Amino acid sequence: MAKIDNRSPLEVNVFKDPYEMANYIWNQIELFNYRNIVIPGGNSIIPFYEKLNTCDLSNIEFYLCDERMAGIDNINSNQFQLKNSFNNLNVKTYGFYSENYENVLNELKKKPFISILGVGSDGHFASLFPEDADFSDSKLQRTFQKDGEPYQRMSMGFDLITQSSKIFLWIHGSSKHNIIKMLEEMNLSIPICRLVNEYKSLNLICDYKFLIG
């Protein structure tokens, strides 16, 4: 990990497991009084969802960074996941199935906000994928359809995400260990490498399994 630190101002915080990772980020939210928070979907982030679902969220608003446009009642939908398993968080969260989400994102741009981003083993975050050659040109939103998927993906644009006051990268598990090599090689066609190269306030939150593989 030292090579990653030397290449960029990437701050690295390592924890025993995802539950300690979740506690750390929540403590940062409380300490710095963050009130507008972009969150990812998917299974990797569930320990953080579980943490949030037990917290006082009365003064916080959340925004999903991406969505599988399979229908809000489809099991693949991020909003479906929140609605069915984490309702305390769901009622505080805007997503791509929310009314006028484009207008919501335009208003978000005017506020200080932080982003928590999961990173896939292929180096994608949100729904900005290496297969999408123009991902870094996206502004407010991005639409992309992966090969083999029957639905489109919607994502916050690269430009909007880089307007975050702070970005936490959420990565855990040995299956993501290859991301370390990606960050050492810094191929800018890979979304996470482009982000680390261009954005200067990143905090990598990870576990030991990610580090040792």
Keywords:
alpha/beta, Rossmann fold, three-stranded antiparallel beta sheet, 10 strands, 213 residues, seven-stranded parallel beta sheet, globular, 10 helices
Fold and architecture overview:
- The protein has 213 residues and is an alpha/beta fold.
- The protein has one domain: Rossmann fold, CATH 3.40.50.
- It contains ten helices and ten strands.
- It has a seven-stranded parallel sheet.
- The longest helix is centred in the N-terminal third of the chain and has 15 residues, at 18-32.
- The chain is globular.
- What quaternary form is this? single chain
What's the count of strands?
A: 10
Distance linking N and C termini: 12 Å
Residue-averaged pLDDT: 94
Q: How would you briefly describe this protein structure?
A:
Helices cover 34% and strands 20% of the residues.
What's the structural blueprint in terms of helices and strands?
Layout: H1 2-7, E1 11-15, H2 18-32, E2 36-39, H3 46-52, E3 61-64, E4 66-68, H4 78-85, H5 87-90, E5 93-94, H6 101-108, E6 114-118, E7 141-144, E8 153-156, H7 158-161, E9 166-171, H8 178-185, H9 191-198, E10 202-207, H10 208-212
Parallel strand pairs: 1-10, 2-3, 2-6, 3-5, 6-9, 9-10
Antiparallel strand pairs: 4-8, 7-8
Helix pairs in contact: 2-3
